[in-house]
Specification:
Blueprint (H helix, E strand, L loop, with lengths): L4 E4 L2 H10 L5 E3 L4 H11 L4 E9 L9 E9 L2 E4 L3 H10 L4 E8 L12 E3 L2 H4 L7 E9 L10 H25 L3 E7 L5 H17 L3 E4 L6 H10 L1 E4 L10 E4 L6 H9 L3 E4 L3 H15 L3 E5 L5 H7 L6 E4 L2 H6 L8 E5 L5 H14 L13 H14 L4 E5 L5 H12 L4 E4 L7 H4 L4 E6 L5 H12 L4 E7 L15
Parallel strand pairs: 1-2, 1-3, 3-8, 4-6, 6-7, 9-19, 9-20, 10-11, 10-12, 12-13, 14-15, 14-16, 17-18, 17-19
Antiparallel strand pairs: 3-7, 4-5, 4-8
Helix pairs in contact: 1-5, 3-5, 9-10, 13-14
Length: about 475
């Protein structure tokens, strides 16, 4: 345990927590503002989390649900709690039902609906001064539908205390994660020019044609981007045969096989191509090599959409080579007529190792004038390697199905730092942060920049942070939009 203090107004709340986590430093304050102020004065400054039962104010809450305060409000103002998503994530991993939102502190018992998700009588007066870490967890007893002074309150109280007891390990994790840290931001990170172009194409198509606009597969591999575009009216489909005849369809940034374009034309679809120009370059290379009768070794992952589309350019000529073992055994009908191409989102060092094996086995091997791995992938891998060499921990923001994001994790680990891929701050495990005083942060080329901003903000809720940008190169690449939306 660190010096963090857990405050509980009631003795029964303190007993619930200590029964599950005896090493917690739990202080019973008593009920109400005056007793809360007195307890805070006795303990003094430092990280604090308030835990106990409370009243639910919003519809949809049930007895035993937990409310984690995004901020605490009272008559004198608002005290934010930036680490709320981190604590809420820890509680959800324990199987608890968790809501994040404002908690209202009232000097008197509150009745009826109100401002916030939950209400209590102590949290505002237990908040430490300055920027000290502060969190609030309230287990709901009463709700607008089931007031405190009504039949069934004892049973609801038992459910709330059980939930509070189950929450104890997450409170311990939060306490252990508090403290000062340095955040090393890898630069470049987040959106690349190809992703910005693809997302902009869908937005412009929606503005021009109105919803629905159909998109084959995920426009880019990120759940937040897909969710935002769905909210605007985009409809994501697996194949073009799911699109109504004559409708507008956008082809995703990863590229498609010629057969997909032919099917779209047969269905009289209005096609807008969002294929990344660097992926389109690889397609052109494969067509050129295959056109002169060469076997094309495509270095990449066979189940990735980009590779599927590239193979479709000349399936009878393309052989996917996924790793060093495959490179050491792959064959060609005519070893004097061979070439290679690469998936654009691979790890640079691994891809080059595979290419070296192929060059050693096939002296006549032809290849692109420049490696196919895109500038953005290369730049982000170099940047994350630079921060990983200094970091105790690296957090990579990106979705699980994002190849370039997964490669960033691998690069960071090879550089010597433990690394984790997270979709957003809610997936950051507090246990990773215990003892990690220097944290590297980056994001895959398909992850929106605001997710990194959110992560930095949440980490600041665990203690004072200093932020250092580690820039390895500066990107100024821009791609033009297709005429359909320009």
């Amino acid at each position: 345990m660190t010096g963090a203090t857990v405050y509980t107004p009631l003795l029964v709340e303190r007993a619930a927590l200590l029964g599950a986590a005896p090493d917690l430093r739990v202080v019973r304050t008593g009920m109400g503002p005056s007793k809360a102020r007195a307890a805070a004065a006795r303990v003094g400054p430092g990280p604090a989390v308030v835990a106990g039962v409370g009243g639910g104010l919003a519809p949809g809450l049930a007895a035993g649900d937990l409310v984690v305060a995004s901020e605490v409000r009272d008559e004198d103002g608002v005290r934010p709690s930036p680490s709320a998503p981190l604590l809420a994530g820890a509680l959800r991993r324990l199987g608890l039902d968790v809501h994040i939102g404002p908690v209202r502190s009232s000097a008197r018992p509150h009745k009826g609906p109100g401002d916030g998700l939950a209400v209590d009588m102590e949290s505002a007066w237990l908040a430490p001064g300055g920027e000290a870490p502060f969190a609030v967890v309230r287990a709901v007893v009463d709700t607008p539908d089931h007031p405190l002074w009504s039949l069934g309150t004892p049973a609801r109280g038992v459910r709330a205390l059980r939930a509070l007891r189950r929450a104890a390990p997450a409170l311990r994790q939060w306490a252990a994660a508090t403290g000062p840290r340095e955040l090393l931001l890898a630069s470049p990170r987040s959106f690349c020019a190809g992703v910005e172009r693809a997302v902009d194409i869908v937005r412009r198509a929606l503005d021009r044609h109105g919803p629905p606009v159909y998109v084959r597969r995920q426009i880019v591999h990120n759940v937040h981007v897909v969710r935002e575009l769905e909210e605007r009216g985009a409809v994501f489909v697996t194949e073009v045969d799911e699109v109504p005849e004559g409708a507008v369809v956008v082809l995703a940034a990863h590229g498609v096989a010629p057969a997909v374009r032919a099917e779209a034309e047969a269905r009289h679809l209005s096609v807008i191509d969002a294929t990344c120009p660097l992926v389109a370059k690889v397609h052109a290379e494969v067509r050129r090599y295959a056109g002169r009768g060469s076997t094309v070794f495509l270095i990449g992952h066979g189940d990735h959409e980009e590779v599927e589309g590239t193979v479709g350019e000349a399936p009878e000529h393309v052989v996917v080579v996924e790793d060093l073992a495959a490179a050491a055994t792959v064959t060609a009908p005519d070893p004097s007529r061979v070439a290679y191409a690469m998936q654009t989102t691979l790890a640079v060092d691994e891809a080059e190792g595979i290419a070296d094996v192929l060059r050693g086995r096939f002296p006549a091997l032809d290849g692109p004038r420049r490696d196919d791995i895109c500038y953005a992938t290369t730049n982000r891998q170099r940047a994350v390697a630079a921060v990983a060499r200094e970091a105790d921990l690296v957090l990579v923001v990106g979705s699980e199905n994002s190849s370039n994001s997964r490669r960033l994790v691998e690069v960071a680990e090879r550089a010597g730092a433990p690394a984790h891929l997270v979709d957003d701050v809610g997936q950051v495990d507090l246990r990773w942060l215990a003892g990690a005083r220097r944290v590297g942060i980056t994001a895959g080329a398909s992850a929106p920049p605001h997710l990194v901003d959110d992560l930095v903000h949440c980490l600041s809720g665990l203690g004072p942070v200093t932020v250092r940008e580690t820039e390895t190169t500066r990107e100024d690449v821009r791609f033009t939009l297709p005429r359909e939306v320009s």
